[in-house]
Amino acid sequence: MNTLFDILRKDRKGTFLWVEAVNDIETAKARLHQLSAESPDEFVVFREIDLRVVATYIDKTYRQL
């Protein structure tokens, strides 16, 4: 199965760490909400097809780009 999106966590040092891959943006959004409840770090959704960040989640705010 091909995944389309990667979820990455940006730590306090500014380093991006891979968390998991998901198949659709709605699943990614739900996971960002779950992950952010456990961590104050910033999370981003990276689209593999065109190598772009398509969403961010920081300070309890989801933003789709």
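Second entry:
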Amino acid sequence: MITTVQQSILRIGPRVGSAALTLAVAVLIAASPSTQAQTFTDLYNFAGSPDGAHPFAGLVRDAAGNLYGTTYTGATSGYGTVFKVDPKGNETVLYSFTGGNDGGSPVGGLVRDAEGNLYGTTQYGGISGYGAVFKVDKSGSETVLYSFQGGQGDGCNPYGGLVRDAEGNLYGTTPSCGNSNNGTVFKVAKNGNSRLLHSFAGGKDGADPLYTALLLDTKGNLYGVTAEGGSQNDGVLYKLSPKRKLTILHTFKGGTKDGCFAHGTPAMDKQGNLYGTTSRCGSGSEGIVWKVSPQGKETVLHNFAGGSTDGANPIGGVILGAQDNFYGNTDSGGPSDDGTIFQLSNKGTLTLLHSFVGSDGGTPFGGVIRDAKGNLYGATLEGGSGGDGVVWKLTP
């Protein structure tokens, strides 16, 4: 198991909520043999140093089919990497973090521009040690665009990835620091200037946006979730306008009728409905897939119950596919309790496409992506031939 990663989760910085502790416990789940098999390929098995290890986040894909992502640890310094895996499964370490001014220990995934530059965040490092926003170009050269300062005037220790607008501005969240030490929403311009768009107060507006990235619509509105806060302290779904007006679209109630501890990136359909996951609560106590209409009405599409025929603890959100299907993964559940890849119909019918057994990967934290042919791709935090995680492909 990955003791160093678990310790890093628990020492995020000045503050972390119970959501992170719950997730850390989920990482400790033991593995057992499984009998399920699907059309599934491990494209790459991470091997630690000098390779990367333990990718928390999902992947991005270019037109040639190359996959890009981050690892939390591994490489010669132990502070993680930015990597590329080609369609044949060959891996290239594009950049190895040193944990110094260049940043260290990236948890979030990457966003890619038209020129092939990659952008992301690191949990630690940077000039002040509170994490950084970075750019890695096609040659593997890294530029730190912004170093977080922490305290009340800035965020710290980002756990999520970024979203990029047409002008090249980057938007993201931090789970800590800010005015009330409950996390922030931030913007970093192309020239590196940073602006705090919102500081969560920890009350009705939410707290601790953890393991999450933002959704940006065509009008410039940002959508996101928090793991805590809200009237029940079970997290919220919010909208932040270009004029920095925060609107709570849904407050999670927890218990058996709603989810709690929301993570991942919201998805939106053509009608403006939003979709996502919570990692806990619901009738099965193992998280839900939710839908929230433009009018704020929530529908629970699936309650995860764990066990051999269902997933448990979805952290990466869902993506929309053909015929109004949704795809995602869970960090546990399935016959071996090593996590699953699932398909969910718009009527709530769940199909397990693959159940991890440890040797092929385990504990997928990040979300999945889908190509034009319907192939799914993702990464797992653990498992594989070296126990350091894998990059996988599933052909339905």
